[in-house]
Amino acid sequence: MFKLRKVFIYSVLMSMPFSYALAAETISLTGSSLNVESLLKLKDSNNKISLTNYAEKNIRNSYDLLMDSARKGTPVYGLTVGVGKNKDTPVFSKDGSLTSEGRQLSETFNRNMLYTHSAASGDPIAPEVVRMAMVIRLNQIATGHVGVQPDVARIYKEFINNNIIPVVPEDGSVGLSDILLAAHIGAAMMGDWDVYYNGQRMSAEKAMKLTNIKPLVPFGKDSLSILSNNALATAQVVNSLEDAKKLIQFSPRLISAALEGVNGNISPLLPHTLAARPMPNVQKVGKDILDNLEGGYLFQIDDNRPLQDALSFRGAHWPIAHAISQVEALEQLIEIQINSSDDNPTVYPNAKNVDYSDSSQVKKYFTKGDVSGAINSSANFDTIQLASQTEAFINAMAQLGKYSSNRQIKLIDPYFTGLPRALVDPDDKNGQAFYTLQNGFTALFVEIAHAANPVSFYGIANQGGIEDNFSNFFQAGKNLQKVVDGVATIYGFELMQVAQAMDLQKKVNKRKLSIKNQQLLKQLRESVPYYSKDRIFTPDVEKTKDFIMMF
């Protein structure tokens, strides 16, 4: 249901008049300077991409080096020979002679490779994710380490700028290149598959006719380069990062509100307390929470205030600090990934003076000509670092959901809050309020706990035993999205109760909230009114979640 909703929203946005959209921006791809912020901007189809002259030169040189190497009889994986178990099967003449027969053989091989690898299943990946994946892949091609025809770069660019988004099923990747998924992008480029054009699903052939785009005729190692990369998995993680960072940013606001809701103790957050154990980011988070509490009653002495709160309140700053550390580490890896080639073989124009270049084996990989360089078999598509760091971040986000769930158990207990049981308004004599809300966030916590289990260990050796390692990076990205969505809703459940608790602190105990918590409460109450009596909660859960994500 979530995916269908995303596709629907995408369709609506794509059909909106330009005047309703933000001013269009053109982001220039160099092969070395793409970042997460720019990628997220390119989710918007009004924003376009261009290639710098240097990037276009890299693309030409990379292709020329590859073909020159083939002409000189160098065996090249995916070019002069097949792939996987067929790595020893000739594709066209080993001397690289480009006869019409040899070219036809290469074109047939490339077309059939895209056909036979288009074998994914499941619902379509969100169009904005596929769009970002194509941007990532084009930027990687611009590094000069891929070796495709310049025509491949041309069609990536035209698809992106004309908002032609291939339909890509989501199931079928083991994480060391999204082969069965990305092949659908290549099939669409040939005009042989479906796309979304301005939000409407249609044949790629029709969309390209409407936009005067010439279909791709893949040749050389074009098809291998189109399908053998991790751009889709990377884009999926980037897409989740946007919402994840919003939740992390909101977390100190939620904690400060929760503390005022339960008459909490600020002692664990004081600068000298945290300076005794200065873990990364924790002092910054502590300061953010305290800043949000300025002007409120928690800085005033209260002899009835507990000396210590439950750990989910007393230590709420720790998982936030940890999440910040993990997202920073993940973004660092992503920015390396999107500005690098994860291709096999690796094409390296102008490679020279490398270590071990005096040995006869290493010399074999080099060629001299109009463009000199090296063609090397590689495993640069291995994403174990990205997958493992994504899983570390998943765990960090799931911890936020766990702490929130534990706080909510305490919020309805008068022993911890000093407020009416289940946060019932004292004038509502028969009210039940939030007592049964626990099932809702508990069910979500079970889901995110399951999604937080590592998947990077699993797989079955295939391709004749050659492909015997897996990272399941794409699956990790799917799990990250599930966890982020779950935590957002769990936070929604908590904020509903925290807001009620703050209102009751004012009403029952005549306490003054901090300036920022007063503002937060006022803004929330514009869409989610105070619970003076029982009502259906379900619409409020969605409204509160949306409030957090838009805050």
Compute the number of strand runs.
10
Gross geometry: elongated
Count every helix, treating DSSP H or I runs of 4 or more residues as helices.
Answer: 21
Beta fraction: 5-15%
Strand order of the largest sheet: 4-6-7
Supply Rg. Answer: 28 Å
Let me know the average pLDDT.
90
As a percent range, the share of helical residues equals: 40-55%
Report on the architecture of this protein.
Helices cover 53% and strands 7% of the residues. The chain is built from 21 helices and ten strands. It has helices at residues 2-15, 36-41, 53-71, 100-117, 127-141, 150-161, 179-189, 204-210, 222-227, 231-261, 271-275, 282-293, 311-314, 317-338, 360-363, 384-411, 414-417, 438-451, 473-509, 515-525, 538-550; strands at residues 26-29, 48-51, 121-124, 164-166, 169-171, 194-197, 200-203, 346-349, 366-367, 373-376. Strand 6 (194-197) and strand 7 form a beta hairpin.
Task: Please name the defining characteristics of this protein.
single chain, 551 residues, mainly alpha, three-stranded antiparallel β-sheet, 21 helices, 53% helix, disordered N terminus
Task: Summarize the topology.
Blueprint: H1 2-15, E1 26-29, H2 36-41, E2 48-51, H3 53-71, H4 100-117, E3 121-124, H5 127-141, H6 150-161, E4 164-166, E5 169-171, H7 179-189, E6 194-197, E7 200-203, H8 204-210, H9 222-227, H10 231-261, H11 271-275, H12 282-293, H13 311-314, H14 317-338, E8 346-349, H15 360-363, E9 366-367, E10 373-376, H16 384-411, H17 414-417, H18 438-451, H19 473-509, H20 515-525, H21 538-550
Parallel strand pairs: 1-2
Antiparallel strand pairs: 3-5, 4-6, 6-7, 8-10, 9-10
Helix pairs in contact: 4-7, 5-6, 5-10, 10-12, 10-14, 10-16, 10-19, 12-14, 14-16, 16-18, 16-19, 18-19, 19-21
Keywords: Signal
Protein name: Aromatic amino acid ammonia-lyase
Signal peptide: 1-23
